[in-house]
Design goal:
Strand order of the largest sheet of chain B: 7-8-9-10-6-2-1-11
Helix content of chain B: 25-40%
CATH topology of the largest domain in chain A: Chloramphenicol Acetyltransferase
Number of domains of chain A: 3
Strand content of chain B: 25-35%
Number of helices of chain A: 12
Helix content of chain A: 25-40%
Structural class of chain B: alpha/beta
Structural class of chain A: alpha+beta
Number of strands of chain A: 19
Number of strands of chain B: 11
CATH topology of chain B: BirA Bifunctional Protein, domain 2
CATH superfamily of chain B: Bira Bifunctional Protein, Domain 2
Strand content of chain A: 15-25%
Oligomer: heterodimer
Largest interface: A-B, 53 and 51 residues
Order of helices and strands of chain B: EHEEHEEEHEEEEHEH
Largest sheet of chain A: 7 strands, mixed
CATH class of chain B: Alpha Beta
Chain lengths: 428, 232
C-alpha cells in the first residue's frame, strides 16, 4: 500500500486545491502516470502517481483544499487489490465518515477523550505520535482535549492527519449512542466544539461569477469606509403621477411604468448638484467623472450584475424606464454587450422589489456611493397636523466616508427626497 | 554557466495551433530532450473556457460572441475563462523547473518580476497585489490588471504563461468578466504608452533571461519548418 500525498511544490506553497481526479478509485495506475491535478496560485499542476497498482482509496474530493504532505489517496499493488476493503475500514474513506458523524456523535465527542481508541485496528499500533504534527491536528487535539498518543496515524510515515483525529473522535460512537441516557447526559459535559466533526453536508463549488462577486464584496468592504444614511421619503406625488400615466404609458411604449426610473431621474439630478457622489478615489486623488452613468443592480439566478445607463442625466423618465427594461432583460438573457456593464459612476439597487423596507447596500467599486430603494407602501402619516394616508419608502444611501461626510450625504439624499416629494414632471 | 533558452516568435497564430506547438515542445522537455523555450504569440480573438468554467461564467451568449468574431475554445485544462486577442503579447515559457528552483510560487513571482521590470522600461509603474496573481498598475479608475498569468505544470515542465495587454481592445474582456465585479483591466496603450511590440518582446525576453539565469537565443521562424509545418 502506497500513500499518495500532496507534494511539496515550492517553499511558499503550503496548500493547494485538488481540482480534478484523472483516475477513479479502482482504476489501475502506472508509475508516473498523471493521477490528479492541483491548483495553486494560478498554476495547475498534474501530479504523477508515485507507484504502480490499483487506486484503492480516494480520500480527498475535487474542490477540497489540502495541505502539503496530506494523504490524498492510497495505491495498493495490483495483486492485493481484494485486500483493499479491510484497509478501508481501518481508515474510513470520506463517505464512511459522514455516516459516522451522526448528531449523537457530535454531542458525545468529549467523552471520546477517555474512551479506548477503538480506531486502533491491530495493524496500526498506537503509540507516541510519529512524525511532526500539523498545526491543525495540534489545534484539534487541544480543543477536544485528546491524547494524541492514542490516535493511530495513517499519514506518511505514521503521521497523524486530521482524518485520523476525526476518525478517533468518531470511534466511540457506538458506545455513546447505545444507551439513551448517555446521549441525554451529554449536555452536562463541557460544551462540545463543533470543530472538525463533519456534519451531514453537501459541497458545491462556487461558479466563477459567485467567486467574482465574493471577491468584489470583500474587496469593497476592505477598500471603502461604508456608512449608510436612511431618509424617509413621501412618494405620494410620484405614485399619483405614475397612476395617472401608467395605462397610456404601457399602451404607447409596450412596457410598464415602475417607480425606479423616477428615483433614477432624481438621483441623476442630485448627482449633477453634488459631483463628489459621481467620483472615484485614485491614490490620494478624487477623480470626478464628467458623465453620469448609473448602474442598476439586477438579480440573476445565482448572482447579480450591474448594467449601466450611460449619460443617465440626459434621459427623462421614459428614457430611463426603457433603458432599465432593456438592460435588465438582456442581463437575464446574458445578452449584454461589454460596454453596457462598464463605466458606471454611481449605482442604484432596488431591494424594495423583494420586499425589503431598507437595507445597507455595499458600494460597487470603484464608485463612492450607492442608493438603495426600499418598498413603497401606503402608511398613516401626519400631514399638516392631520392624519393622512401617504405612499412612503425609505431611501438608503451608502457612501464612502473617506471622502464624503455625513452632513453632505444627507444633503444629497435630501435633494433626492425633495425632487421625489415635489414631483411635477409629466410622463409621456 | 548560463543555461540556454530559445526565443521563438510564432506571430499571429490561433490558440489551438499554438497549443499543439506548446505540447510538442513540452513533451520533448518531459522526456529530457530539447531546450527550454520562450514562445511569443498573438492570438486572434478567442475566449478559452477551462474545464471548471461553466456556461454561466461567460457573460455573453456564445452566439453573441461568435457574431463579434470571437472564437470559443473549450480546453480540458482546469481554471478560468480567459480572453486573448490582437494587441496582446502572449508568452509561453516552456521550461523544466527541475533545472531551476522546483518551486511553483517562485516561478510565478519571477514571471511577475519579468513583467514589472519590462513595464518599468516603458515608463509604466507596475506591481503585485498579494493573493491576486498577475501584474497591476494604477490607471484613471484605480488599480487595474495589465498582465494576466496562468501556468500549467506537468512533471515540472511548464506550459502556458502570461498575456500582456499592449494595445488590446479591452472591451472584449467584458464578455467574460462581470465588470464591476472585479478590478478593471488596462493596457500599455491605455496607460499612454504606444510601444513597438517587437521592442516589448525583446525587453521581455531580456528580463526573463535575467530572472531565470538564461542566455536567450532568438530563433527565426524559418529555422523551425518541421514544427510549424507539422501542425498545418
Amino acid at each position: 500500500m502506497t500513500d499518495v500525498v500532496m507534494p511539496q511544490m515550492g517553499e511558499s506553497i503550503v496548500e493547494g486545491t485538488l481540482t480534478k481526479w484523472l483516475k477513479k478509485a479502482g482504476d489501475t495506475v502506472v508509475l508516473d502516470e498523471p493521477l490528479f491535478e492541483i491548483s495553486t496560485d494560478k498554476v495547475d499542476t498534474e501530479i504523477p502517481s508515485p507507484a504502480a497498482g490499483v487506486l484503492s482509496e480516494v480520500l480527498v474530493h475535487e474542490g477540497q483544499t489540502i495541505q502539503v504532505n496530506a494523504v490524498v489517496a492510497r495505491i495498493s499493488d495490483g495483486s492485493a487489490a481484494p485486500a483493499a476493503a479491510p484497509a478501508a475500514a481501518a481508515a474510513p474513506a470520506p463517505a464512511a465518515k459522514v455516516e459516522a458523524a451522526a448528531p449523537a456523535v457530535v454531542a458525545a465527542a468529549p467523552v471520546a477523550a477517555a474512551a479506548a481508541p477503538v480506531v486502533a485496528a491491530p495493524e496500526v499500533a498506537a503509540g507516541v505520535p510519529a512524525g511532526p504534527l500539523s498545526p491543525l491536528v495540534r489545534k484539534m487535539a487541544r480543543e477536544n482535549n485528546l491524547d494524541l498518543t492514542r490516535v493511530a496515524g495513517t499519514g506518511a510515515g505514521g503521521r497523524i492527519t486530521k482524518d485520523d483525529v476525526v476518525a478517533y473522535m468518531a470511534g466511540s460512537a457506538p458506545k455513546a449512542a447505545a444507551p439513551v441516557a448517555a446521549v441525554a447526559a451529554a449536555p452536562a459535559a463541557p460544551a462540545p466544539k463543533a470543530v472538525a466533526v463533519p456534519g451531514k453536508t453537501r459541497v458545491e463549488a462556487m461558479t466563477t461569477m459567485r467567486q467574482k462577486i465574493a471577491e468584489h464584496m470583500i474587496m469593497s468592504q476592505n477598500v471603502s469606509a461604508h456608512v449608510t444614511t436612511v431618509h424617509r421619503v413621501d412618494m405620494t406625488k410620484v405614485a399619483k403621477m405614475r397612476a395617472k400615466s401608467k395605462d397610456a404609458f404601457a399602451a404607447r411604449h409596450g412596457m410598464s411604468l415602475t417607480f425606479l426610473p423616477f428615483v433614477a431621474r432624481a438621483a441623476a439630478e442630485a448627482l449633477a448638484q453634488f459631483p463628489i457622489f459621481n467620483s472615484s478615489i485614485v491614490g490620494t486623488d478624487i477623480v470626478y467623472h464628467n458623465d453620469v452613468n448609473i448602474g442598476i443592480a439586477v438579480a440573476l439566478e445565482g448572482g447579480l450584475i450591474v448594467p449601466v445607463i450611460k449619460n443617465a442625466d440626459e434621459k427623462n423618465v421614459t428614457g430611463l424606464q426603457r433603458s432599465i427594461v432593456d438592460l435588465a432583460g438582456r442581463a437575464r438573457a446574458r445578452q449584454l454587450k461589454p460596454d453596457e456593464i462598464q463605466g458606471g459612476t454611481f449605482s442604484i439597487t432596488n431591494f424594495g422589489s423583494f420586499g425589503s423596507v431598507f437595507a445597507t447596500p455595499m458600494i460597487n467599486q470603484p464608485q463612492v456611493a450607492i442608493l438603495g430603494v426600499g418598498t413603497i407602501e401606503k402608511v398613516v402619516a401626519v400631514v399638516d397636523d392631520a392624519i393622512a394616508i401617504r405612499s412612503q419608502c425609505f431611501l438608503a444611501l451608502t457612501f464612502d466616508h473617506r471622502i464624503i461626510d455625513g452632513a453632505l450625504a444627507d444633503q444629497f439624499t435630501g435633494k433626492v427626497k425633495a425632487i421625489l416629494e415635489g414631483w411635477s414632471e409629466e410622463i409621456s | 554557466m548560463n543555461r540556454t533558452c530559445i526565443v521563438r516568435d510564432l506571430g499571429l497564430m490561433s490558440y489551438a495551433d499554438a497549443l499543439v506547438i506548446q505540447e510538442a515542445i513540452a513533451s520533448e522537455r518531459k522526456a529530457g530532450r530539447g531546450t527550454d523555450t520562450l514562445l511569443f504569440v498573438e492570438h486572434p480573438h478567442v475566449v478559452t473556457i477551462g474545464r471548471n468554467g461553466r456556461e454561466s461564467n461567460v457573460l455573453a451568449s456564445p452566439e453573441l460572441m461568435r457574431s463579434s468574431g470571437v472564437t470559443i475554445f473549450d480546453s480540458d485544462r482546469g481554471g478560468d475563462v480567459t480572453y486573448h486577442g490582437p494587441g496582446q503579447i502572449v508568452a509561453y515559457p516552456i521550461m523544466d523547473l527541475r533545472e531551476w528552483k522546483r518551486d511553483v510560487g517562485a516561478f510565478v513571482r519571477a514571471i511577475e518580476q519579468t513583467l514589472i521590470d519590462t513595464l518599468e522600461e516603458f515608463g509604466i509603474q507596475a506591481f503585485r497585489i498579494p493573493k491576486m496573481t498577475g501584474v497591476w498598475t494604477v490607471g484613471a479608475g484605480g488599480e487595474a490588471k495589465i498582465a494576466a498569468i496562468g501556468v500549467h505544470l506537468s512533471r515540472w515542465v511548464s506550459t502556458h504563461g502570461w498575456a500582456l495587454n499592449a494595445t488590446t481592445d479591452l472591451r472584449f474582456f467584458g464578455y467574460i468578466v462581470p465588470c464591476g465585479l472585479q478590478k478593471p483591466v488596462t493596457s500599455m496603450e491605455k496607460m499612454g504608452v504606444r510601444a513597438d511590440p517587437e521592442a516589448v518582446k525583446r525587453v521581455l525576453a531580456r528580463h526573463f533571461g535575467a530572472q531565470f539565469g538564461f542566455e536567450m537565443r532568438f530563433e527565426s521562424q524559418a529555422e523551425t519548418p518541421e514544427l510549424t509545418g507539422a501542425i498545418r
